[in-house]
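Batch manifest line 479
LIGAND: adenosine-5'-triphosphate
JOB: complex structure
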Amino acid sequence: MLNSITIFPGIDKDGAREPFERVILRPREIYAIVGNTGSGKSRFISDIEQIADSDTVTKRRVVVDGALDNGSIAFLGQSMRFVLDCTVEEFIRLHQRCYNGDERIAGCTARSVLEAANSIASERLYPGALLGSLSGGQSRALMIAGISVISNSRVVLIDEIENAGIDKSRALELLMSRDKLVMIVTHDPHTALIADKRIVIRNGAVKNVLDTTETERESYARLDAAYRLITNMQFKLRNGEELC
Amino acid sequence: MEQKVIIFCGAASAGKTGVISRLTNSIRQSGETAALCKIDCLKTGDASLYDKLGFPYTIALSEDVCPDHFLVSNLQELINWGAGLNARYLLIETAGLCHRCSPATKHTISVCVIDATASLSAPEKLGPMLLTADIVAITKIDLVSQAEREIIAYNIRQLNPGATVVCADCVSGYGIAILWREILVMPAYTADADDRLRHTMPAAVCSYCIGERRIGVKYQQGVVKKIFADGGGLC
Ligand SMILES: Nc1nc2c(ncn2[C@@H]2O[C@H](COP(=O)(O)OP(=O)(O)OP(=O)(O)O)[C@@H](O)[C@H]2O)c(=O)[nH]1
Ligand SMILES: Nc1ncnc2c1ncn2[C@@H]1O[C@H](COP(=O)(O)OP(=O)(O)OP(=O)(O)O)[C@@H](O)[C@H]1O
Ligand SMILES: [Mg+2]
Ligand SMILES: [Mg+2]
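JOB STATUS: finished
ARTIFACT:
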């Protein structure tokens, strides 16, 4: 059982100590990580994934209280490509083999991973396709399916889900569930307002941690309407239909 | 003085220099001393990289001799050279060409460096280099997905169940502290004990080509190329 993850301050890009005593992350909470391009958002969640021990550029220390399921933290990085030289199906089987003996995935088949991937990619993935030949969106979809169906960790770190050309809502549905600790790096207010808390990064440091307010929840409704409009138009755009 | 001798092997461009350069920071931060040696066949730009690391180093060129034979023919002298410099850690980077060889000996610490972005079959192609390693460092993990990293580590553990597998990203420095902690718990080099190769080398024309595994000039015959013209080894 995971109780919490605590982050102790490191240094910002100028070497100054980060302005907080500790940041405590708890299960069943969703955190959005926001900040300028290059501010250090990806580095922040990498520090958590790697359970940094003052051994990364930021000098942050991360302490896990309790046990992590199967010892790992699920991590969806910003990378949009696979590099392994095998087919999609071989890849899924190799990945499953790493979790052999884990009864939680005993019933999971290569087909179920592929189905999950196909439910978020707009263009189908085929089992015989070479991993390296997948498009950015298809690769992302397969990474998400693997995290959701195979690794199924209680801690999920997501680096920018929106720019992958995949179905964001469906992807988040697969990745998040209320019993998980979820951290999601985003530039998108709609995604950020799904979270309970926002961690703001500036110049390599955690600047502050904000709670999502009631007023913001109202903004979410407006953003959600806009999101639906945009995805609907996107669908038409991709299908070559008139945008109306 | 206790000395640890660490041999870094792995294919070309696997990240050996990257790992060594990061590790020298850990060594410095611990207030320890090191000497570095890069074995190569031909002159490369590596001198400028090693020059920045702030520890004494030597770039040893094997030229037309097999670089792994060359290393093992000079291992004792290198160890003496490091000891003469009062270096507690001797870090040796191999040329990483022939996958038939492993220059690891019983008393040295062998770190096999594997590029996470190389082929799935790359680890098994490394042969003795990987099979005899104490520690396997998977580099460039920043360039692969988590699932791929898990698959690569799993494959390596299947091939060499006894080795410690460390994932590293030499750009951010992640993993190097873990590697350093692993090295700290490894035994020091025991100079008086009979050190020997963990694996025989392929056939060629020196004593080691015909199966010699003992270290030291008195066991060496045939074409033996020496790094130090004066017979080497200050000590
Ligand atoms: N992204 C990334 N690049 C790396 C990493 N480690 C090494 N590199 C890059 O990979 C290339 C080769 O790394 P080296 O450390 O020189 O490899 P090597 O094994 O010493 O190579 P040789 O000595 O020439 O055989 C360089 O361009 C490095 O910057 C890493 O962890 N991540
Ligand atoms: N505290 C720090 N000290 C030094 N370097 C840092 C620090 N935090 C982050 N960096 C470095 O700054 C660079 C940019 O950081 P990062 O990739 O995390 O940005 P980002 O916020 O994710 O940007 P983007 O929105 O473009 O993805 C990286 O090289 C990272 O290692
Ligand atoms: Mg980023
Ligand atoms: Mg090198």
